[in-house]
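Quarterly update from the structural biology core.
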Amino acid sequence: MAAAAAAPSAALSATDVVIVGGGLAGGLLALALREEGAAVRLIDSPAPTHFQRESASESCAPEPSAALASATAISYGAVPGWPLAPTPLARLAAGASRRWRHLQRRHGFLGWRACRLRLHGGQAGLGGLPDWLPLPFAQVDSAELAARLPEVLAAAGVERRTAWVERLQPLPQGWQLQLCDGSTLQASQVVLAAGARCRRLWPELPERLRGSWAAVLVLPQPPPPLAPSAIAPGSSAGRLAWLPARFGRVALERRAASLARAEWLVDGGLVPQGSGALLGQHTLVRSGLELGQPPARAETEQQLRAALAAQPWGAALAALPGQLQQAAVAFCCDGQPLVGPAPQAPGLWLFTGFSAGFSQVPVLAPLLAQALVAGGRRAAAAQRRLCRLGVW
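Predicted structure, tokenized:
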């Protein structure tokens, strides 16, 4: 799935952009930059691997015994068509499906589909609405996105290199990136879109950017609730997502800066992914800025299954066979992602910390691309828009 690694190369021109991170954020930003006519180089990690592998003397090969997923790979991919909060960013993100449709018209299928939404738990907080809601909702299948994105990037002219970035070093003009194979790259502009790894590359990032550990159960086949017979009669959507009325993860992230010790919780969700499904969502937030080692897999899986079994909605699903996958996830305590220049680091840009990535990333990527390379009034207008959204 990954493109072949390019040969070590020299400096890039002043109009080029290097993006560190090839997941949802890095990939969609690269496509937006190509729409602006910019030359883009994307540095993507070799494969899901151990988060702590940092030495340049080690191989770029993954470590299967300690494999981790990417945050994109274990995301539910939810794209609600209504604002999730009374903020300008939430109102913009409510139109994310339009951007996904644009991307699919331009680049082919990326996994976005209209989807039937069913909510469980907390209906009283929704004004007594039934759990089948006729609300505009879509889902991006993260497995299908991962399969298609490398092909789409290549066809769009994005140069994709498979490597770990070990170190960022400012130069008198631009930046130098040291890669895991010992080679270096130079660029006038670098965008950090590497999620929870951004702080390792540039520790001076704002403290509101934090990291957590997320885990889901990957089921090899759809369970009965996702079978065609479970979809509401007359529904025009061929897919169904079951989500909690409220995600506890969001409230836990808002409290991250005040935590004295690690806290975890489980949100119950079930969405299709590829030929199977994703079940549950375990979140672990530690105090402080350091992620630390991944939590023990056996303990995490036990906590996830036990929490599902304790919910009326999840009791029948908790014992289903599935493989636990974990990933490090970046978020911002105030719910506003980091989109724009890094403080006191000319030429270094941030595109990370999303709380609803599949809604926020596609609508923010074109604005950041314009701010980076459009120049003149278009760049200034994009910057003003990002400022009004509270993310710049």
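The domain at 17-73+146-206+336-389 is CATH 3.50.50.60 (FAD/NAD(P)-binding domain).
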